[in-house]
Specification:
The protein is mainly α. Helix content is 56%, strand content 7%. The protein is globular and about 65 Å long.
């Protein structure tokens, strides 16, 4: 989670450091594995150097943020007002650059998704809002098999931790498995209702197939998550999860 530390391989750290929206603090924690202990921050009134250098906010706003830096540390109302102004400028810039683009390629669209979720304008539902915009863009493009092309992620945070090309590949690879699972869950529901019993969603083979979308990270076969894996996912400790189910060298697939 932002502001809290987590374990990540060097390649994830490098991907985050290339993201102008994020302020990243990283310190190597394990020399043998090469893993780092990492904390990162979304844009706010104290973490905006990257977006300033990228030209995503105005010179006037940068001057205001600099002028009120010390005051904002004590003045909560001013801090919230300036944060809102910062996020509004970032959103205006993002949508201004993407407005009118005809996007039908999931890997290209993933770049927008990374930017929006990196701005992180809401306290919650940022990922879901990002995917909503992606869905609308695909529908508007109306090209190919739009329904099965919609991007979905069942492991969050890969949007900010992975290089854009890898994130695009993951959204594309996982899409088919996601919809296969959704169809099987619907069939299970209909069958259970007709038999007047409770549906057994987590017994569906499609859950096992879903893990095949992680082959791009070096996973050789489908894998069934155990209770420790579930804990890693719940607490977003993906480096530890991938170290366990794939191996310590999985980070090299991000290079």
């Amino acid at each position: 989670m932002p502001g809290n530390t987590f374990t990540a391989p060097k390649e994830e750290v490098q991907a985050m450091q290339k993201n102008p929206y994020l302020t990243v603090e990283a310190k190597q924690s394990n020399a043998s594995s090469g893993d780092y202990e990492v904390a990162y921050y979304y844009p706010d009134v104290f973490h905006y150097d990257g977006v300033a250098k990228a030209g995503y906010i105005s010179t006037g706003l940068i001057q205001e943020l600099t002028k009120y830096n010390l005051t904002m540390k004590k003045d909560r109302v001013l801090r919230e007002t300036m944060t809102k102004k910062l996020l509004q400028e970032l959103l205006n810039d993002l949508f201004g650059r993407w407005y009118g683009k005809y996007v039908s390629n999931i890997r290209e669209l993933s770049k927008f998704m990374i930017e929006f979720v990196s701005i992180h304008p809401y306290a919650d539902y940022n990922g879901r809002t990002t995917r909503m915009y992606a869905h609308l863009a695909i529908y508007e493009a109306n090209s190919g098999d739009g329904f099965n092309s919609l991007p979905h992620e069942y492991i969050s945070d890969l949007d900010t931790l992975s290089p854009p090309t890898k994130y695009g590949e993951f959204t594309e690879n996982s899409s088919g498995y996601i919809y296969a699972l959704m169809r099987d869950m619907m069939k299970e529901l209909i069958t259970a209702v007709s038999l007047r019993k409770s549906p057994s969603y987590y017994d569906l083979p499609a859950w096992l197939e879903l893990t095949r979308s992680m082959q791009m990270f070096g996973l050789q076969n489908s894998v069934k998550f155990d209770s420790l894996d579930d804990k890693y996912i719940e607490t977003r400790q993906f480096a530890k999860l991938f170290n366990k189910i794939i191996g310590p060298n999985w980070g090299k697939t991000l290079g």
